[in-house]
Design goal:
By secondary structure, the chain is an alpha+beta fold. It has 4 helices and 10 strands. A 3-stranded antiparallel beta sheet has the order 3-2-4. The protein has a 3-stranded antiparallel beta sheet with strand order 8-7-9. The radius of gyration is 37 Å and the shape is flat.
Length: 292
């Protein structure tokens, strides 16, 4: 520890290091921290339940779901869309009814205006009286028995009603909860994980730290290992196996079927509500700054 003089606290200079230490001690300023492993889901866990999948399926964009969870989600979304569509149809009918009533009111006003013009032609005196009554009705609100109608905004009966928010027409497609793209049941690809066989291991599969391996090279799979699914067989392989072995001949090594680029679906690894897919693992907390 460095020696400090007796008058070290009497200096007028507030160093940057002292400011940072005081801010950290008192909770001022912006604090940054990296999210730990506990906040990042495993590669073989469902994006909805965040638990290991019993019946894993994957979307064309590489998001893994438990079949039961994603089907329940899709049914719930379809029911929600149907409810929104019923509300939209009710609003549409109500709007059409209001427009029809408005058209009838305009038609009645045109008829009354025509009758009024016809009656004014018959007699100049009637026309004069009608013009005077119109002018007085425009100037005063007490003419023709209107003295009881008070244009006061604080009277509940005279308060204008706010229009309801118009509901937009909902889309018919169910969207993927992760990518936001339309998702259909036929787009879900079943996934087959190759279990790591350890004869002397007594733990259950879900409680093991190492559960699955590549179906071709038998490399252990984990969050740090990029993996992909072969649509033709559903087997999970490493991306290293894809680039070095499979893409040379574009043949599935597990069943010998021809592959295309669309048949190789890469996993979207990690990612929860606290961190996006292994791209943003730093958390920033902004608090009031301490001024020197």
């Amino acid at each position: 520890m460095t020696r400090r003089s007796k008058n070290v606290g009497s200096g007028r200079v507030y160093s940057y290091n002292e400011k940072q230490n005081d801010s950290k001690l008192n909770g001022y300023g912006t604090t940054e921290n990296r999210i730990g492993k506990d906040s990042v889901k495993d590669f073989d866990c469902c994006c909805l339940t965040l638990q290991p999948c019993r019946y894993p399926v994957i979307t064309p964009d590489g998001y893994l779901y438990d079949k039961e969870a994603i089907l329940e989600y899709m049914i719930h979304q379809k029911m929600k869309i149907a409810k929104q569509m019923r509300e939209y149809e009710k609003q549409k009918k109500r709007h059409e009814k209001e427009m029809a009533e408005l058209a009838k009111a305009e038609e009645r006003s045109r008829e009354q205006k025509f009758i009024k013009m016809e009656s004014s032609i018959m007699s100049g005196r009637i026309a004069l009286e009608s013009s005077i009554s119109v002018s007085t009705s425009k100037v005063s609100n007490t003419a023709n028995g209107q003295e009881t109608v008070m244009p006061s905004f604080w009277i509940p009966s005279l308060t204008p009603n706010a229009e309801k928010t118009k509901t937009k027409k909902p889309g018919k497609a169910v969207l993927c909860p992760m990518s936001g793209k339309p998702l259909k049941i036929k787009d879900l690809v079943p996934v087959k994980f190759t279990e790591v066989k350890t004869p002397h291991e007594r733990k259950s599969l879900m409680s093991r730290n190492v559960r699955y391996m590549c179906a071709v090279t038998h490399d252990v799979l984990g969050n740090s290992v990029p993996v992909a699914v072969l649509r033709t067989s559903g087997n999970v392989v490493t991306m290293e196996c894809v680039t070095k072995l499979i893409k040379k001949d574009m043949i599935d090594p597990t069943n010998g079927m021809k592959l295309t680029d669309g048949d190789i679906i890469q996993f979207q690894r990690g990612g929860t509500g606290y961190a996006s897919t292994n791209n943003k693992l730093n958390v920033k907390l902004e608090t009031p700054a301490m001024m020197a």
